[in-house]
Design goal:
heterodimer; A: about 300 residues; mainly alpha; MetI-like fold; 13 helices; about 80% helix; globular; B: about 350 residues; alpha/beta; Rossmann fold; 2 domains; 4-stranded antiparallel β-sheet; 11 helices; transmembrane helix (chain A); transmembrane (chain A); BPD_transp_1_N (chain A)
């Protein structure tokens, strides 16, 4: 197991290095400069600014400097907000995004698993059809439409939750629902398909022959086996949600990182683009490792294959 | 034989399909006594598995019981609710399935899988149930059972897995064990081991067995009595000697003729295919494939004719007015052996 982990971590570092390299050069290929009012600046001013930020050096040299600094924990300085360090920019904004993403994922998984299971148990009945329609709607309605609807009906008309802004838990409810409907629909679909298969398998028939109740069969035998295909989906989805959603954060004016990321691309804020990308990548490779470990816990057949490696 | 524990009377089961109603089980009656093994033989689609699933209350959703009774200790199982059946399944009537490779939950330790019926039916707490599971695991011949109880199904071979399935079925000491082709998916040497194990455990646990198979070779060593099914009906039943050495129904002849023995020189297949049960033929359903068919076979369904107190067959050939015919060579050879057997008994 230790050897396996060590090998995996080595691959992770290599992956991150490749991501950093590719992103860096792609980013440099983007048109434009970081200066928003370039036409008003003199050539001398631009030259001074370029020297200040090291943008006058050849690209490969900039790359070497960036990697060197990153390895020493320095992500550089943002071009946007009066010289804020990128690490500060990220750390001050990742909190709300991560919390919101996590809550949305828990919400989506919890209700998705229930809806998917109920649909599978009542396969080919009106309950199944209803659940399928719900998940299709959940998947196809963009979350910003839902967000606005929630704001109007739940927050404005009924006044149950705050309409926007960030504060106590009640502020997170509506954005969590808006963000969580996507994973809910996806989870429900996966669980339904998986469980319909599982419920037709021989070991479920054996479980019935044991005299177990319907609930006992689903809870003890069907659910775990239906979760296996879902595990692959959950990991990357969670990372994507936790590293920020620009649209939802904008609508609910949440000080998250998603909005920041988009802004940094539009303004050629190189250090911020790199910083957020690297954060996302680190999250992703970690979650993929975690997924593989969780896989082994859920499915013992995979655990053994991993050990033999 | 002992007390009668199961009595199936005039069972009729249909299946709703898009094409229409398939009459899968047509007027099937049989019984099972305590401690005996009844084999139900027949080709695929003859209704063997449907019959046993109806005993368990595990019929598919599109199945419809049209009539009949399944009396288990004089209580009709067909009248029980799903909840009541849950308390019978696994406790009084247990089942072994055909394919051990797929009939165990891949994500649950086998100890837990064996302990589950105990926890459900005997309200045994988990620790005690696992201890009992260990006992039964030793009983079915899993070596190193203390360690292996914490293993998962994929860590066992096919034969071992079938032993585990048997352990699950027997852990509550059921009165009836239904074995639905339990050795079909295993290779021949393992087959013999599993059959020996079943016989051994039957004595220890004092259970009755209903053994479903299409393999007559397996039946000979296992069963006390045999019922031959064809097209959703039982066409002949009797003691194992009577069926093997004094068969009366042409379908049983066909089955025995297509089974290799040490003395057989050539094997014969039964021509044709079974009838479509969407629209079962009038008369004897085997008539179309029967070289000895008479005019009446196509017109009227034969009743059961008594051969002996235990042996009945549904064929017009047994009618007193039927012409004398000579069965196939192999059957004549068997009947001679039967006469010798009977002669010995009388001395």
């Amino acid at each position: 197991m230790r050897k396996y982990l060590l090998k995996r971590i080595l691959y992770m570092v290599l992956t991150l290095f490749l991501v950093a390299t590719i992103t860096f050069f792609l980013m440099k290929l983007m048109p434009g400069t970081p200066y928003s009012n370039q036409e008003k600046m003199t050539t001398a001013q631009i030259k001074i600014m370029n020297e200040q930020y090291g943008l006058n050096k050849p690209v490969w040299e900039q790359y070497v400097i960036y990697i060197f600094d990153m390895l020493h924990g320095d992500l550089g300085t943002s071009f946007q907000y009066s010289n804020q360090a990128v690490s500060y920019l990220i750390s001050s904004r990742i909190g709300p995004s991560a919390q919101l993403g996590f809550q949305a994922m828990v919400f989506g998984l919890f209700f998705g698993i229930i809806i998917g299971s109920v649909a599978a148990i009542n396969h080919n009945t009106w309950i199944d059809t209803t659940a399928t329609v719900v998940s299709i709607i959940g998947k196809s309605v963009p979350n910003f439409v839902l967000a606005v609807l929630l704001q109007y009906y739940i927050a404005l008309k009924l006044g149950w939750f705050p309409i926007a802004d960030w504060g106590s838990f009640s502020y997170t409810v509506l954005p969590t629902i808006a963000l969580g409907v996507g994973p809910l629909a996806e989870t429900a679909r996966f669980i339904r398909t998986g469980m319909v298969d599982v419920l037709n398998s021989d070991y479920i028939e054996l479980a019935r022959a044991k005299g177990l109740s319907k609930f006992g069969i689903v809870y003890h035998h069907a659910l775990r086996n239906s979760l296996i295909p879902l595990v692959t989906l959950i990991g990357p989805y969670t990372v994507a949600l936790m590293t920020g959603s620009m649209v939802i954060e904008n609508i609910f004016s949440i000080p998250g990182i998603g909005e920041q990321f988009v802004k940094s691309i539009l303004t050629n804020d190189y250090p911020t683009i790199m910083g957020v990308t690297m954060l996302f990548s680190v999250g992703l490779v970690l979650i993929i490792l975690l997924t593989d470990i969780v896989y082994g816990i859920i499915d013992p057949r995979i655990r053994l294959a991993g050990n033999g490696d | 034989m002992g007390e009668r524990i199961l009595d199936v009377k005039n069972l009729e089961i249909d299946f709703h399909t898009y094409a229409g109603e398939v009459k899968a089980i047509r007027d099937v009656s049989f019984h099972l006594d305590k401690g005996e093994t009844l084999a139900i033989v027949g080709e695929s689609g003859s209704g063997k598995s449907v019959t046993t699933k109806s005993l368990m209350g595990l019929l598919a959703n599109n199945a419809l019981v049209k009539g009949g009774q399944i009396l288990f200790h004089d209580e009709d199982l067909l009248k029980k609710t799903e909840k009541e059946m849950q308390n019978i399944r696994g406790k009084d009537i247990a089942m072994i399935f055909q394919d051990p490779m797929t009939s165990l939950d891949p994500t649950m330790k086998i100890g837990r899988q064996i302990a589950e019926p105990l926890m459900k039916h005997k309200k045994v707490e988990k620790k005690k149930a696992l201890a009992q599971a260990l006992e039964i695991l030793k009983l079915v011949g899993i070596t190193d059972a203390e360690k292996r109880i914490n293993d998962y199904p994929h860590q066992f071979s096919g034969g071992q897995r079938q032993r585990i399935v048997i352990a699950i079925a027997l852990v509550c000491y059921p009165e009836i064990l239904i074995a639905d082709e339990p050795t079909t998916a295993l290779d021949v040497t393992i087959q013999a081991q599993i059959l020996d194990l079943m016989k051994e455990l039957q004595e220890k646990i004092e259970t009755s067995i209903i053994f479903i198979t299409h393999d007559l070779g397996v039946v000979a060593g296992m069963a006390d009595r045999v019922a031959v099914m064809y097209a959703g009906q039982i066409v002949e039943y009797g003691s194992v000697d009577e069926i093997f050495y004094n068969p009366k129904h042409p379908y049983t002849w066909g089955l025995l003729n297509s089974m290799p023995t040490l003395d057989s020189t050539n094997l014969e297949a039964i021509p044709g295919t079974p009838p479509d049960l969407l629209d079962p033929p009038v008369g004897d359903p085997f008539a179309a494939r029967n070289p000895y068919a008479m005019k009446i076979d196509a017109e009227k369904q034969p009743p059961f004719f008594k051969v002996s107190d235990t042996h009945y067959a549904a064929t017009w050939l047994l009618h007193p007015d039927a012409p004398k015919i000579t069965p196939p060579e192999e059957i004549v050879r068997r009947q001679k052996l039967f006469e010798q057997l009977e002669a010995k008994k009388e001395i």
